[in-house]
């Protein structure tokens, strides 16, 4: 640091920053933080640290005791375009101002933290700052910053002043009491940060649960000014559960989730051991209106020593993103921005523990309710969030089998929801697979011809109509040693089960099948007879690769989908198929019938027709011929 003789005012000393401040301050102002309002969080955090520091030091030196009404004060002055943040904390000497504010990325708080090693745990204050750059966020909204500070036990005060362009000044100052004032000369494009309501909203968002009272100076109706408390000051998640009412829990849920419903489940616990943290989480009681269109990232609020840091730490996996709440820790190291957390082992342990606790809560609520016990309402929860939870079967190998165990499904067994365990309990003795059918909606699945042969043999089929249902069964593969199998790819399975009494004789299709194959060409992979149909004449199936429902979903999502022709299966007992076999045997052409059969099967399966006009023309011609016109 170099001093110049050309001091800006009497008694002032001008210094150069001891780092490449032009580049570093530009980084802080334009790249380090994504929101300008973050500056207030940083300055309030520093003020809280300084106040905690003084309280800690007063344990061994009564002369350093805090005033009775210690706190943090925010004073906007629109006329002078000044914003002042004041505290009653430990203050800084001339040397500390030069060292802490004159050197980028040096933190007095961090140095002070080294003193804590020998202190008793209960005496250690909660310190937030670690990297010494948060203060410089003030230059995002101010073209000049002044810091007036006085340490307890001395009458001497000093002022630090800078425009953030490479130099700062130090000069003697006066302050009636120990502590620090940070005075921001607000930029012309930052008027919003001179409005009390805007500042209060930032405090509520970022520092609502700081232990020290944060007051905001406001004008009253009579034109006078008064200081009003802007933060709640009570971290609900750190209070014992016995001291919190259900109403308080619900109110806090409304605040943190911006919701109006009553939470389905409240999880409040403190983890101790290798990694310590407190958590207060909520499972919503209702699904948000635009839930499926929202980001897939978890938005749990991460706090460090009561200070809100970010809601983008992904403390829960994407398939639990509907869970709301707060996690607060003193163990987590942060990177310089505090918004872009490093992937630290501590954070990984917190994520694992929080996920395990939430999964355990869901699993317990999914257990069957004994007679006389209150219904947990799990089916309602599943209707709201089941489509998202099932994403975990696809992407979470650690919890895949556990999720499958409590997941709920609709099936051909009845109107309600079932579990895989209940399905297995109803399986036929010779049944080796759990059969499922995927599609766009439950009603269409119930009417699908794919189910006819399974229904006739009394074989239950899961009916899966959520988009993710086209993906997870393949990833799960099996459950309780039972393989999951799509009915459309279960060719040959039905022959293993006793067939019901059939209506009519099966027609020999030895001649018809080659004729249909020739007419359809490469639009189908095969044409064959099937026992899966009872009422319908035809059905589409596939073998190997994605089934037809998966192919449709991938095409709708814009993904490149190679052409995979389906298999056309024929019901040899259906009157239409018998008639076509007879026509072919007489030497008549069945080419037009072949294309109509394929289109009928497509319509039944929810497939769009590639040539709707051609289908209409062929069908019209057949109707004309049938009526003799």
Automatic annotation (TrEMBL):
Which residues does the annotated region (C) include? Answer: 553-629
Instruction: Supply the Pfam families for this chain.
Output: HATPase_c_3, HSP90
Subcellular location(s): the record lists: Cytoplasm
| One Gene Ontology molecular-function label | ATP binding
Question: What domain of life is recorded for the organism?
Answer: Bacteria
Q: Which UniProt keywords apply?
A: ATP-binding, Chaperone, Cytoplasm, Nucleotide-binding, Stress response
Give residues annotated as binding ATP.
42, 46, 87, 92, 100, 107-108, 130-135, 180, 338
What CDD domains is this protein classified in?
Answer: HATPase_Hsp90-like
The record, for InterPro entries, names: HATPase_C_sf, HSP90_C, Hsp90_fam, Hsp90_N, Ribosomal_Su5_D2-typ_SF
Looking up SUPFAM superfamilies in the UniProt record yields: ATPase domain of HSP90 chaperone/DNA topoisomerase II/histidine kinase (SSF55874), HSP90 C-terminal domain (SSF110942), Ribosomal protein S5 domain 2-like (SSF54211)
Q: Give the GO cellular component terms, alphabetically.
A: cytoplasm
Write out the ranges of the annotated region (A): 1-338
The protein's role, per its UniProt record: Molecular chaperone. Has ATPase activity.
Q: How does it assemble?
A: Homodimer.
Family note? Belongs to the heat shock protein 90 family.
Specify the protein name.
Answer: Chaperone protein HtpG
The scientific name of the source species is Tanticharoenia sakaeratensis NBRC 103193
- The protein's gene is named htpG
């Amino acid at each position: 640091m170099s001093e110049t003789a050309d001091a800006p005012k009497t008694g002032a000393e001008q210094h150069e920053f001891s780092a490449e401040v032009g580049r570093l301050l530009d980084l802080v102002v334009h790249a380090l933080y994504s929101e300008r309002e973050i500056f207030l969080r940083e300055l309030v955090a520093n003020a809280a640290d300084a106040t905690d520091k003084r309280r800690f030091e007063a344990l061994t030196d009564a002369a350093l005791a805090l005033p009775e009404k210690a706190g943090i004060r925010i004073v906007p002055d629109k006329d002078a375009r000044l914003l002042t943040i004041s505290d009653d904390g430990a203050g800084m000497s001339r040397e500390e101002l030069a060292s802490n504010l004159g050197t980028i990325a040096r933190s007095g708080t961090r140095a002070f933290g080294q003193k804590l090693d020998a202190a008793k745990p209960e005496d250690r204050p909660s310190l937030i700052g670690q990297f010494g750059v948060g203060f410089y966020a003030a230059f995002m909204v101010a073209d000049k910053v002044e810091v007036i500070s006085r340490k307890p036990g001395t009458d001497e005060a000093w002022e630090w002043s800078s425009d953030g362009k490479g130099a700062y000044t130090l000069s003697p100052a006066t302050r009636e009491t120990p502590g620090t004032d940070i005075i921001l000369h607000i930029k012309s494009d930052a008027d919003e940060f001179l409005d009390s309501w805007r500042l209060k909203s930032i405090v509520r968002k970022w520092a609502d649960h700081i232990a020290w009272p944060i007051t905001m100076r406001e004008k009253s109706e009579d034109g006078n000014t008064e200081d009003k408390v802007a933060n709640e000051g009570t971290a609900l998640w750190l209070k014992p559960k016995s001291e919190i009412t259900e109403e308080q829990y619900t109110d806090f849920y409304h605040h943190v989730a911006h919701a109006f419903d009553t939470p389905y489940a409240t999880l409040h616990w403190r983890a101790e051991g290798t990694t310590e943290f407190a958590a207060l989480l909520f499972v919503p009681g209702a699904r948000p209106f635009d839930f499926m269109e929202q980001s897939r990232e978890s938005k749990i609020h991460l706090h460090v020593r009561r200070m809100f840091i970010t809601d983008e730490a992904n403390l829960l996996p994407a398939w639990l993103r509907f869970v709301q709440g707060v996690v607060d820790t003193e163990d987590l190291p942060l990177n310089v921005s505090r918004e872009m957390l490093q992937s630290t082992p501590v954070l990984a342990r917190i994520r694992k523990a929080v996920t395990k606790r939430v999964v355990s809560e869901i699993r317990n609520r999914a257990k069957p309710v004994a007679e006389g016990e209150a219904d947990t309402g799990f089916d309602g929860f599943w209707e709201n969030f089941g489509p998202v939870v099932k994403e975990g079967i696809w992407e979470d190998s650690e919890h895949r089998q556990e999720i499958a165990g409590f997941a709920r499904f609709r099936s051909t067994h009845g109107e309600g929801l079932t579990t895989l365990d209940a399905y297995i309990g109803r399986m036929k003795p010779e049944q080796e697979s759990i059969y499922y059918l995927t599609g766009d909606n439950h009603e269409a699945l119930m009417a699908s011809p794919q189910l006819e042969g399974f229904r006739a043999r009394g074989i239950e089929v899961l009916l899966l109509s959520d988009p993710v249902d086209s993906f997870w069964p393949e990833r799960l593969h099996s459950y309780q040693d039972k393989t999951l199998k799509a009915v459309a790819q279960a060719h040959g399975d039905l022959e293993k089960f006793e067939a019901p009494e059939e209506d009519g004789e099966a027609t020999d299709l030895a001649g018809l099948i080659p004729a249909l194959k020739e007419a359809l060409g490469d639009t189908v992979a095969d044409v064959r007879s099937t026992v899966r149909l009872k009422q319908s004449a035809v059905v589409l199936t596939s073998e190997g690769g994605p089934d037809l429902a998966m192919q449709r979903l991938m095409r709708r999502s814009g993904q490149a989908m190679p052409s995979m022709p389906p298999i056309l299966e024929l019901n040899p007992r259906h009157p239409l198929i018998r008639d076509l076999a007879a026509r072919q045997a007489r030497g008549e052409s069945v080419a037009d019938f072949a294309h109509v059969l394929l289109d009928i099967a497509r319509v039944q399966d929810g497939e769009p027709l590639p040539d709707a006009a051609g289908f209409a023309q062929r069908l019209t011609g057949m109707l004309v011929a049938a009526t003799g016109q």
